[in-house]
Design goal:
By secondary structure, this protein is of the alpha+beta class. It has helices at about 15-30, 35-50, 90-100, 130-140, 145-250, 260-290, 300-315, 340-355, 405, 415-425; strands spanning about 5-10, 60-65, 70-80, 100-105, 110-120, 300, 320-325, 335, 360-370, 370-380, 425-435, 435-445. It folds into 3 domains: about 5-145, 2-Layer Sandwich (Heat Shock Protein 90); about 145-295; about 300-445, Histidine kinase-like ATPase, C-terminal domain (Heat Shock Protein 90, 2-Layer Sandwich). About 50% of the residues lie in helices and about 20% in strands. The strands form 3 sheets. The protein has a 5-stranded antiparallel β-sheet. The chain has a 5-stranded mixed β-sheet with strand order 7-9-10-12-11. Strands 6-8 form a two-stranded antiparallel ribbon. The radius of gyration is 50 Å and the shape is rod-shaped. This is histidine kinase.
């Protein structure tokens, strides 16, 4: 948009420098600039005027208002030829510091300078009626004497000095506050440093204690593994002897036993088998913790495996109120894994479900997706409280419940199943609702990265 002219002057000679300064300040005040900006405009025009109004030089001054791209007060000075004093050396730097923009032009022998001072952002727009009244008002201004301008300059100087004095006082106060704050910061820094040093000493001591505890825990785990391994080996021989003797007593070539004796010997045999199974689990757990239990992957037919589980677990069904359901796996039901370890995992989970289910069913299912076999053992048993669902994976931990006396158990089944699952490269998850049942999901990768054992 074309700048709007609000006032125009024709100046000639050095005597008009004061007039240029005074009129610049008056027009700046009329268009809405604040006091500080009025003084900046006046000083900039005064310094530029001293350079261009030399001798009898004639200068045209046009005061304008720009509305785009931002509102600005614009002053154009133009003259013919070059002034005796180069503008770039006299007044130019002062004007640059005080005004937002200072440009020079030189075209066809006419030289000029343009100065701009942006309006405050909260200055309302100037309508045509306002600009008309502004032009009329400025046209009525009279030329003041140099003495009057000197008096105004003195007033401006006193005003500036007063403001500087107030600012100086404020700076002194702020410096005192800053010094006081710095003193507090230094003291606080000293306190924090002392606390940090004390904390570091505590952390070092705690770290040393944790190392000692870790070493003790490692030694305890190794001792426990050795103990289980030794006990398992020591117990296996006498238990096998007991089982062998019961088989001899119950065999066809043994002396006849009456019904009560046969029942008692059978109970001894069952207890021996249970104890032998527990010894095997303890030995496997010891091997797993020591890293010596390694899987031997091979092609495993899940249909055959599920059939074996269906037959061997059927005698564990506690009553006719409980149904054991083993669904056939989807074809092709072949997974590359350690069949023995997988069988132990599923047998433990299903037998665990049968122990704690009074009515309903215990179901074993399997499905295959994205190279992973998922085995789900779901029961409608008594369930596990939420706060106990992680603790059931601690060795020898048993959840107190009314069926505990009937079910027996050692608290090793779930920890044992989880360790074997991890050895097979899988994971075991448990989800249970008290009074509604439990679901255990075992995810086993389909032989990824495993070398087959033939």
């Amino acid at each position: 948009m074309t700048p709007i002219v609000v006032h125009r002057l024709r100046l000639q000679g050095e005597q008009d420098v004061f007039f240029l300064r005074a009129r610049g300040r008056e027009v700046a005040r009329a268009v809405g600039l604040d006091t500080q900006d009025q003084i900046r405009v006046a000083v900039a025009l005064s310094d530029i005027g001293r350079a261009v109004l030399v001798g009898s030089a004639s200068v045209t001054v046009v005061f304008q208002v720009e509305s785009t791209p931002w509102g600005a007060f614009r002053v154009d000075l133009s003259w013919q030829g070059a002034p005796p004093t180069p503008v770039e050396q006299a007044g130019w730097e002062t004007a640059r510091r005080l005004m937002d923009e200072v440009d020079s032009q030189d075209k066809d022998g006419t030289r000029g300078i343009t100065l701009r001072k942006r309006f405050p952002v909260d200055l309302p727009p100037m309508g045509e009626d306002y600009l008309t009244r502004l032009r009329t008002q400025l046209a009525k201004l009279t030329r003041g004497s140099p003495l009057d301008e000197m008096r105004v300059q003195n007033d401006e100087l006193l005003l500036t000095l007063d403001r500087l004095e107030r600012h100086q006082g404020e700076l002194v106060r702020l410096n005192e506050e800053l010094e006081e704050t710095n003193t507090g910061v230094v003291a606080l820094y000293g306190e924090l440093t002392a606390e940090l040093e004390q904390t570091n000493r505590g952390v070092v001591a705690l770290y040393g204690e944790l190392e000692d505890r870790s070493r003790q825990l490692k030694d305890a785990n190794e001792a426990k593994a050795r103990f289980w391994s030794n006990i398992s080996h020591e117990l296996r021989t006498p238990i096998n002897s007991v089982i062998g003797l019961t088989r001899l007593l119950l065999g066809p070539g043994a002396s006849p036993l009456d019904a009560e004796q046969r029942q008692q010997v059978s109970m001894i045999a069952d207890s021996g088998e249970t104890l032998l199974s527990l010894v095997h689990e303890l030995l496997d757990i010891a091997k797993a913790e020591s890293g010596k239990l390694e899987p031997h992957p091979a092609d495993t037919d899940l249909k055959d495996l599920f059939g074996q589980l269906r037959g061997t677990l059927a005698p564990l069904v506690p009553s006719d109120a409980v149904a054991l359901v083993v669904d056939d796996p989807p074809a092709p039901a072949v997974v590359v894994t350690d069949e023995t370890l997988l069988s132990r995992i599923l047998r433990n989970l299903v037998s665990n479900g049968l122990k704690f289910t009074e009515s309903g069913q215990v179901r074993l299912t399997a499905d295959h997706h994205d190279g992973v076999w998922r085995f789900r053992v779901t029961d409608t048993g008594i369930g596990i409280p939420e706060h106990e669902q992680e603790r059931v994976f601690e060795e020898f931990h048993q959840v107190p419940n009314p069926l505990q006396a009937r079910s027996g158990g050692t608290g090793l089944g779930l920890p044992y199943a989880r360790r074997l699952t991890e050895i097979l490269g899988g994971q075991l998850r448990l989800d249970s609702t008290l009074g509604r049942g439990t679901r255990v999901v075992v995810e086993i990768p389909d032989g990824a990265g495993m070398e087959l054992t033939r």
